[in-house]
C-alpha cells in the first residue's frame, strides 16, 4: 500500500474518536477536543512519513504468536467508553468538568507524550501492535533512542498520552475507564518483558544494562 494511501487511512482513527465525542456531546464547539484530534492526526501522518514500512505493516496486520489477547479488545472498549462519557459530560450534562487551565496543560502533555511515542516507534522497526517475537523479521533488542533509558518507552509514552489526553478532553468521569486501560498496559509491559527475556536473544543482557521498564528509578 502506498504511503499516501496509508496517510489518508490514518485519518480514520481521529475521525472515529471525533464522531463518538461530538456525537455524544451533540455539538462541535469543543476546542480542546479539536486540539486532541489535530495532534492525533499529525502523529498518524508522522508515523506514515518517517517510520519503517515493515513496522507499519506489522502494526496493521501482525504476524502469528500474540501473547496478549486481552489488552487490545478490552482496552478498545474502555477507550470508546471514555470518549462517549467525555461527550456526554462536556457537551450535555457537565458532571465533572475539568478547568480550562488544566485542559491546556493536559493538551501540552499530550503533545509531548505523542512525540515520545513517535520517537520510540521511529527507532524501533519491531514496534508491533501485539506481543510477539518477530522471528521472521530478524527481531533483535533495540538499544538506541529512548530505549537507552527505559525498556518500554513506547508504553510509558502511551500511558502518559492516555492520562494527559483525558485531562485535555475535559471530563473527570471519563478518566475512570482510562485508568483501567492504564492498568492493562502495565500488565502488558510485564507480560512482554518476561516474554522477551525468555525468547529474544540478547534481551536479557540488555535488561541488565537498562534496569527500569517504564519509569526511571521507579519501575
Secondary structure: elements and pairs:
Blueprint (H helix, E strand, L loop, with lengths): L2 H7 L2 H14 L5 H20 L2 H8 L10 H23 L6 H24 L29 H17 L5 H25 L3 H7 L10
Helix pairs in contact: 1-3, 2-3, 2-5, 3-6, 5-8, 6-7, 7-8
Characterize the structure shown:
With 219 residues, the chain is an all-alpha fold. The protein has helices spanning 3-9, 12-25, 31-50, 53-60, 71-93, 100-123, 153-169, 175-199, 203-209. It has a single domain (3-209), classed as Up-down Bundle (Four Helix Bundle (Hemerythrin (Met), subunit A)). Helix 3 runs parallel beside helix 6 (100-123).
Which descriptors apply to this entry?
219 residues, mainly alpha, Four Helix Bundle (Hemerythrin (Met), subunit A), 9 helices
Shape: globular
- Alpha-carbon distance between the two ends: 39 Å
Can you give the helix content as a percent range?
Answer: 55-70%
Q: Which CATH first-tier class would you pick?
A: Mainly Alpha
On the 0 to 100 scale, the average pLDDT is 95
What integer value in Å does the Rg equal?
Answer: 18 Å
The assigned structural class equals mainly alpha
- Secondary structure tally, helices: 9
According to CATH, the fold-level topology is: Four Helix Bundle (Hemerythrin (Met), subunit A)
Reading the helices and strands in chain order gives: HHHHHHHHH
Overall number of domains: 1
Number of strands: 0
Unreliable spans are none
Strand percent estimate: under 5%
How is the biggest beta sheet arranged?
A: none
> Which architecture name does CATH use?
Up-down Bundle
